């Protein structure tokens, strides 16, 4: 066990060191953009309040009736918070592809040196898989910490009269993106299964292209379509048989989890075959 785990840890650490600059850039962008949003949006709101009060000689009640209050949820729905999340997700998706193709760049391809290491080639595969998930959870943790820093900043800038009583946790539960990305609900593990399945299928497609060149692209597209059809098919059963009670919600979740596990396992075995037998050095 120790002998098999040691190479995995070393390769994971190696891949993590290569990811670190890109990951720190995404983290810095997230924190910086968030801080701008935490300061700019409440200050703009208070300027609007003050301007309306002076120009209309309005009472507090009249201001509230006209402009309402600002909640932390309003701040989190702004581009200053949402955009860094979108950039982080798309950035890591890009990196999950780049993490393979980078090895083949240049004349003296580094990929061959990695594949010739005296360890199982799947160790290389799993190290790349683990590193992507480390990057994902690091960005999620950064965003969560940012929210806990941002809430007192917003509440300090906005006058308590015009600041909604909606709390930080309530704002997080209301946010559609946070419900998906953050472990706020018991079904969060489903998101992890979906993410793992997508990543494993993507890795398989890349290995198909590396193994069969232009034909591999067609094989990969076909494989992705089949995998997608398998996972989505149960969602259309009720429409196909015109029976909304054919499968209950809890049963559908179990079926989807089982199908995604099957797709993930098939992707692992396909990747294992390709990396061991079709990619030569």
TrEMBL record:
Keywords, alphabetical: Membrane, Transmembrane, Transmembrane helix
Protein name in UniProt: ABC-2 family transporter protein
Transmembrane regions listed in the UniProt entry: 20-41, 79-102, 122-149, 188-208, 217-237, 252-275
Superkingdom of origin organism: Bacteria
Coiled-coil annotated residue ranges, if any: none
């Amino acid at each position: 066990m120790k002998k098999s785990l040691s190479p995995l840890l070393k390769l994971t650490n190696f891949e993590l060191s290569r990811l670190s600059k890109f990951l720190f850039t995404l983290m810095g962008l997230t924190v910086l953009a968030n801080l701008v949003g935490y300061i700019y949006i409440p200050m703009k709101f208070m300027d609007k309040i003050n301007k309306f009060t002076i120009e209309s000689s309005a009472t507090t009640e009249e201001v509230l009736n006209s402009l309402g209050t600002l909640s932390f949820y309003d701040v989190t729905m702004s581009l200053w918070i949402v955009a860094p999340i979108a950039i982080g997700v798309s950035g890591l998706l890009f990196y999950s592809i780049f993490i393979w193709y980078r090895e083949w760049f240049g004349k003296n391809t580094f990929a061959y040196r990695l594949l010739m290491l005296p360890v199982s080639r799947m160790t290389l595969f799993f190290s790349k898989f683990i590193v992507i998930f480390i990057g994902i959870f690091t960005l999620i943790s950064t965003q969560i910490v940012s929210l806990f820093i941002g809430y007192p900043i917003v509440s300090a800038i906005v006058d308590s009269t015009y600041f909604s009583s909606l709390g930080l946790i309530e704002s997080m539960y209301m946010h559609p993106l946070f419900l998906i990305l953050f472990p706020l609900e018991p079904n969060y593990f489903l998101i992890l299964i979906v993410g793992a399945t997508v990543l494993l299928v993507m890795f398989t497609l890349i290995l198909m292209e590396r193994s069969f060149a232009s034909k591999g692209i067609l094989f990969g597209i076909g494989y992705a379509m089949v995998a997608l059809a398998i996972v989505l098919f149960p969602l259309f059963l009720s429409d196909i048989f015109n029976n909304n009670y054919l499968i209950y919600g809890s049963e559908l979740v179990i079926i989807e989890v089982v199908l995604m596990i099957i797709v993930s396992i098939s992707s692992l075995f396909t990747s294992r075959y390709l990396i061991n037998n079709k990619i030569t050095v």
